Task: structure prediction
Amino acid sequence: MKKIIVQKFGGTSVADTDKIKNVARLVIREKELGNDVVVVVSAMGHTTDHLVKLAHDINPNPSARELDMLMSTGECVSMSLLTMAIQACGYKAISYNAAQIGIITENVHTKARIIDIKTDKLRESLDEGNIIIIAGFQSVTEDGEITTLGRGGSDTSAVAIASALNAERCDIYTDVEGVYTTDPRIVPNASKLDEISYEEMLELAHAGANVLHPRSVETAKHSAVPLRVRSSFKCEDMGTLILGVEKMEINKPVAGVAVDLSQVRVVVCDIPDTPGEAATLFSSLAKENISVDMIIQSYARKVSNTNDIAFTINKEDLDKTKSILDVVVKDLGAKEVSFDENIAKISIIGAGMIDRPGIASTMFRTLAENNINIRMISTSEIKISCLIDKENSQNAIKSLHEVFNLGCDTIADVKGTLPDV
Ligand code: ADP
Ligand code: ASP
Ligand code: MG
Result:
């Protein structure tokens, strides 16, 4: 039986017709190596952003179902165009949307989770000699309702399909040469990592390194699909391999620095300090599928016997959170709620920080030396995150990258040149 390789191409890689023709060459090259090839594509360039903007121009509060109906169209365009480009080169190719295959999710709009992927049609089609092109990001419920996997979710489509097909490898092609110690657009001398553990990559992705959708890393880890991030424009480079931590030699305490500009800080003030208040607050958000990231509860004030709870949510959930809190704050007997969008979450990540004291204090001291105030802190075994003012984020990333010695002598090529395949 032939090996199956899954390739995923992101928005920049299919941004115009020349780039789509370039992708067709990369797909054909993999086919010519004797493999069966399944390709997952994102929408062209910034299509999804434009679609979301159109929706909000028409209706400031579009329904999640209609947003999914609209956003899912972007990937259909790139899927068909890439298939035509491959056919134009004389190869058999066919495109499928998520409904045609059966990429099944739970019944949640705009950030659904995959529960099953049917493989019969895909296997049949591969046996007929086709290169298969699939629309990423989109999915359907058991009842045939269109859903999407959350922004950046095509990575997750690709890894889930690779896992369902028991693929040899899943290659995520993008506009940088792999996973770097931080976003190379912010720190041009960031170092490309040859390998990184699933655990570190998961934390990096959750902390805002959007080079991989967090759930794609979770899925790869769970199913042990070998996952690679590599460039569509410099394809001779093998990029970054994501693998189990037990296979790695850990030298540095910190593997990477990430920034997340998509969070909003919410502070609920003067909540009566009685059992069950936090449960009421957070279950009302959970019921509406709103994820909360950092949480801090202050000490109870002696006189009023009240405390404050501060937490962060994603900007996408801001409107929904405001309307939920309008009701819940009254139920809790809290005094007021404030929202701050002018914040950034800066994180350092590294499996090497386990049992190595002094990493957190180095981070805090570096921020202090740069006159950067820390508003919230959260930690995991291999991550420390600080919430700071947005205007300080670039300065914070650059100085943390430097203090943990993550730079190299070369400048990252974030655009690259078209390969000659
Ligand atoms: P695609 O359209 O291919 O899915 P994305 O824009 O989602 O691409 O992800 C690639 C981008 O991720 C890069 O252009 C880079 O600016 C950004 N990025 C953020 N952090 C990192 C990191 N640690 N390593 C590599 N890229 C990163
Ligand atoms: N097109 C979708 C987005 O922009 C999915 C993706 O690119 O992965 O979020
Ligand atoms: Mg992406």
